[in-house]
Amino acid sequence: MSELLAGIAYFVFVFFKAIQQRNVAYLHYKWVMPTSYCMSTTELFVISVVALKAIGSDTWVDMVPMVLTVGTGGGLGAIVAMYLHHRYVGENAARLEKRT
Q1: Helices of type H across 26-100
Q2: How far is the CA of 36 from the CAs of 17, 56, 57, 63, 100, in angstroms?
Q3: I need a surface site. Which of 58, 68, 74, 91 has the fewest CB within 10 A?
Q4: How far from each other are the two terminal CA atoms of the chain, in whole angstroms?
Q5: What is the domain extent for residue 89?
Q6: pLDDT tens-digit readout, 41-77
Q7: Do 38 and 18 meet the contact criterion of CB atoms below 8 Å apart?
Q8: Pairwise CA distance, residues 40 & 16, whole Å
Q9: CB within 8 A of 32, min separation 6: which ones?
């Protein structure tokens, strides 16, 4: 269960991290601080869950499911953030507004 929680939380963390990169790249100053607080909250949650799991593990092999779920969550978080930012915030969004 802790693996699933960590995977979901890391999805959210990487999503916010990718959005933050876009905020910086496109000078969206007003979104930098709120996004930073979201990032810190989810990152600390992931660190806590992983640490608690590691403390209760007998060997490093017990951590393999954690690695897989956190890695998958992170990759999917980045993909979703890229898609949504491009769709609703980036240049593509401006083109969509011109059509309507």
Answers
A1: 29-55, 64-88, 91-99
A2: 8, 30, 31, 28, 33
A3: 58
A4: 45
A5: 2-99
A6: 999 999 999 999 999 999 999 999 999 999 999 999 9
A7: no
A8: 10
A9: 20, 23, 24
